[in-house]
Write a structure and sequence with these properties.
Strand order of the largest sheet: 1-14-13-12-11-10
Oligomer: single chain
Strand content: 5-15%
Shape: globular
Number of domains: 1
Structural class: alpha/beta
CATH architecture: Alpha-Beta Barrel
Largest sheet: 6 strands, parallel
Distance between the termini: 44 Å
CATH class: Alpha Beta
Helix content: 40-55%
Length: 414
């Protein structure tokens, strides 16, 4: 056993891992995987339900999330194991538990050269969701040189060391998987952190050529990073989630798949331009989707969108290759979105997390909100999933999330 791992830490993690393994062996796991595959193949058996991006700092009940290990590496894994067990016990929805512990490979040289410079507005110091005021770092064409091409490499020694620790802890209980990257392409979500929303939005109209130069540069360096991941065998495998939703599918990986060298076409990817919520479809296409085509064409399947309302932009999203799911955020017109998506994509509905942050918790209001989506999808035949995410608070009442999961499962007939 590696010297840095104490016997107590090892025993703590193995006990948690044994609980995960027991849950992973239940027949319901394969049943749920089958339901996800049906949905993702556009032949749904029923709507699927997921909860992700949870305010874990508000969740602890009876010390279920209290860490017992002391080593930093062990604590990171313990956090994942305890959260998995907690979610399974209290708000599983359609989560899948597999008998695997994933250890990220240590990859150097990622990033594009520019840090984020900001002022933060923090209301709850325990919450990692807070306000940001970004400082503009890209004011001139000369500043574009600050966006650097990455030079990716695997730190083999560090990766092997983590693998040795993980095997010493989990062999005989859980499979250890040294995991690569699952890249996504959301350049405008990066650019807005380098420039600030006000500068970026105004310059789409006032300095369009400059904005094209920025997104073109970020597209090139992102594709270069993807090429390097693939050439070095550093893409991930066994993808379970794609942007907070189930990724299980019979369509991936593609023929010729090599687990040691996954290709982009063996994976899902996702992309978005949340700051484009207020721009026209024509501007959305010109400044973003025309660039996104190059990224999505590389991947086997794609998920498009996040918080931006997209019900008026389905017609331009149809031009992006390999898209299978489209985000329908809390701000969409559900009826229009369902009509325009039809049976062609998964209607990835994001119910409003604000309903969990009200002074008075109202299960009836939640149920009415969810049934609106289910009834709309039924009228138009949409494959649909209900994905509760971006949950910044439940007012320190974790039972609200547990009850949301029960309501959602009842609504979809699970």
């Amino acid at each position: 056993m590696p010297a840095t791992i104490s016997r107590t830490d090892r025993e703590t993690l193995r006990e948690l891992a044994a609980q995960v393994a027991e849950i992973a062996a239940l027949p319901v796991q394969q049943e749920t995987i089958g339901l996800w595959k049906a949905l993702n193949g556009l032949k749904p058996i029923r709507p699927m339900v997921m909860i992700d991006q949870i305010p874990w700092h508000e969740m602890d009940v009876n010390d279920e999330l209290t860490l017992r290990t002391e080593d930093e590496f062990c604590q990171q894994i313990e956090t994942t194991l305890r959260r998995t067990l907690y979610q399974w016990r209290h708000m599983r929805a359609d989560m899948v538990v597999e008998p695997i512990v994933e250890i990220p490979k240590v990859i150097r040289g990622e990033g594009f050269g520019l840090p984020i410079v900001e002022k933060a507005a923090i209301l709850d110091p325990r919450n990692d969701i807070y306000g940001h005021a970004y400082i503009d770092q890209l004011q001139t064409e000369d500043d574009l040189r600050k966006i650097a091409e990455p030079h990716i490499s695997l730190d083999e020694k560090a990766t092997a060391g983590l693998g040795e620790k993980a095997h010493a802890i989990f062999d005989g209980v859980l499979e250890v998987r040294m995991q690569g990257r699952f890249p996504n392409f959301s350049p405008w979500d990066i650019i807005v952190q380098w420039r600030s929303p006000e500068h970026m939005i105004l310059d789409l109209a006032d300095r369009p050529q400059f904005m094209h130069q920025i997104v073109a540069r970020l597209t090139e360096v992102s594709l270069s990073q993807l090429d390097q991941y693939q050439a070095l065998g550093l893409l991930g495998r066994g993808q379970r989630l794609i942007h907070c939703t189930g990724a299980y599918t019979d369509e991936l990986p593609k023929p010729g798949f090599d687990a040691e060298h996954p290709r982009a076409k063996d994976l899902w990817s996702y992309g978005m331009a949340q700051i484009f919520a207020t721009v026209s479809p024509a501007m959305h296409k010109e400044f973003w989707l025309d660039y996104a085509v190059r990224w999505f064409s590389r991947f086997g399947l794609g998920y498009y969108g996040c918080c931006e309302p997209l019900h008026e932009k389905i017609h331009i999203i149809r031009n992006i290759p390999n898209v299978r799911k489209i985000s329908m955020s809390p701000w969409v017109d559900v009826e229009k979105g369902a009509e325009r998506i039809g049976r062609d994509f998964v209607f990835s509905r994001k119910p409003s997390p604000a309903l969990l942050a009200r002074d008075n918790w109202d299960q009836g209001l939640v149920e009415r909100d969810l049934r609106e989506t289910v009834e709309a999808y039924a009228r138009h035949g949409c494959p649909v999933e209900l994905i509760l995410k971006d949950i910044s608070t439940v007012c320190y009442q974790p039972q609200r999330l547990w009850e949301w999961a029960e309501v959602a499962r009842r609504v979809v007939g699970a």
